[in-house]
Fold:
Amino acid sequence: MKDSCDVLIVGGGPAGMVLALLLAQNGRAVTVIEKNPDFEREFRGEVLQPRFWHAVRDTVIDDVLKVAPHEKFDRFKFFIGRNRRIEIPLSKIDPDIPYITWMTQPKMLETLLHAARKYSSFNLLFGTSIKELIYSGDGRTVSGAICEDSSGKSLEIAAKIVVGADGRFSALRKLGDFKLSHSSHQFDVLWFDCKRPASFDHGADFFLGGEFNCIVLPKHPEKIQFGMLIRPGSFKAWRDLGPEKLAEKLDQIHPMFKAFSKDLVNFKSFTILKAAVERLENWSKDGLLMIGDAAHTCSPVGAIGVTIAVETAIVAADVINQCFAENDFSNTQLSQVQNLRLPAVLKIHRIQEIIGRLATNKLLPRKLIIRILPFIAGSPLAQLVLQSVISRDPNAARRLPNKQ
Structure:
């Protein structure tokens, strides 16, 4: 079977779907292939920082997503042991957008899909994976891809541009022979969730100073989500100790953990996330572009991954529209995405790596961190760092001049 489009997007996550909607709105024929049969997914990026809403403010994405089911919280809380020590209102970080939005990724993607389907030039193929890139006569310009659906049928899709938005485990990285310029792995996050206790008030709670550091976040609509920061590869040691030992450690952190730990009989409830920071050396080739986590993987620090990926997707839409306006799909044109976005990505990655080292005690002893944390968290410097990560950054989403 054969098909064709202007732009083939591999991956139906936030970056891929935002890019698809922006291109379809501009009249481009867009096909998205998503290897999963639907958008249901657990423990993916579901936090939209104030910075996200600044980035999408002048696009259709703003109006589309604000009607999707979500909830908001307006403060960070830091606990040393069980005692609340520091509380930072979001109004101090971003007075314009003084809240963080919690939106499940399935709802976010379904809302974007509903909006994109209003354009006849948009097409989404669930249960479809990329298997091979197609090259033009010169042997180096990508001109499409060979895909395979869940039944094993092959589909050849011709495209002017193929975009890799297939996440941190990108298949297109390998097919396109992209090389990493940077990779670091400082910790893992062990995620689980449970029913939200009636006593839980909305916010982001950070528990520091115990045997491991934890974050607790609301999970729309009626759950809370826990993330335990553990050393890379140490989950096996916890499994060997057994669920009872882990339940005991959770009980020592805070009473709210009992809602989960009392029923902890095995490790099936956990999802482990490798908290890697990665960047490709080059994000594009002739006819081929990588965006989002496929190009620049963020760690969970700051819960900023979806926002950074969507910022890149918005810039990519500008660049791709310019490619069609000038009928030029070369690496020279597509590399503008990396040129525009790399400074902001580098800034986020550097901050994430510093905080990651602190959170896993690689920079300072744990006892010293516990003593100085209240002073650091409440300082103007901490607020400036938070602003540079989750609030509006003037250089975060540099855009092309509007030539269309």
Q: What stands out?
A: The longest helix spans residues 336-359. Residues 212 and 233 are 14 Å apart (CA to CA). The longest strand covers residues 180-195. DSSP finds 14 helices and 19 strands in the chain.
